[in-house]
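Minutes, project check-in
Item: structure for the 175-residue chain
Input as provided by the requester:
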Amino acid sequence: MTEFLAAALAFPTVVFSFLLLIVLAYWLTVALVGLDFDAPVMPISISMFVVITWFTALVGTVLTPEGSLRYAILAGSLLVGALVTKILLIPVKNWTKPEKPASRNDFVGRTAIVRTSKVTERYGQAEVTADDGGTAVVQVRAAQSTELTAGQTALIFDYDAEGEFFWVVDITTGS
């Protein structure tokens, strides 16, 4: 145990030992107090960097003779810590990507069920299902002078932003 403490308190490991104590105190506080943070990638990335760099410096300190190559160990530890942290954070960043806000254009290309008695070039509503499984009743207009009736399935092919409605065609006949 004394050899471990001697290596942990030798330069350059001692620099990262101090940082490791700060990281451990932070995560202990988070666990006990239940702090919630909005940007989880930052504390995780800093913590991973400190742990990896500390471990690399510790191994380098133990494997090299006393006094030799200490600054090379410091530089190598920082480099290894940065590279390994970057690689390990790839899946974490994918988990924490903000969701794309829903857009009306997300409905284009989907099918919808006509909910009004008819859909014409000037009037109509249909129910469409979103990616999350929720449904929405939207304003629709029939294209090409066709009429759709309640219960028919229509294909949404365009959104008219000015009129705030979707253009639809009968999916069974394509008109």
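Outcome recorded: The mean pLDDT is 87.
No further action items on this chain.
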